[in-house]
Amino acid sequence: MTKMTLKDLTPGEKARVARINKRNIIGRRLIEMGVSPGCEVKVERYAPLGDPIEIKLKGTHISLRKVEAEIVEVEKEC
Fold this sequence. Notes:
Layout: E1 2-5, E2 14-20, H1 25-32, E3 40-46, E4 53-57, E5 60-64, H2 66-69, E6 72-76
Antiparallel strand pairs: 1-6, 2-3, 2-6, 3-4, 4-5
């Protein structure tokens, strides 16, 4: 398993959330949206200019800014 952030994934890649690095307002918002350790996420696509990122999480599509995605540490299988 390789550790990286959600921002590092490319469209179509799946990973498991390892942890959320900051417990500030952004971190709390992500947790409220269902982004929590152990859940599987898939990057669906990036906006044409690269921000925001659309992910699929628990059957729901969520858009995250790169600032939000870079605090989510994920583990991707090699």
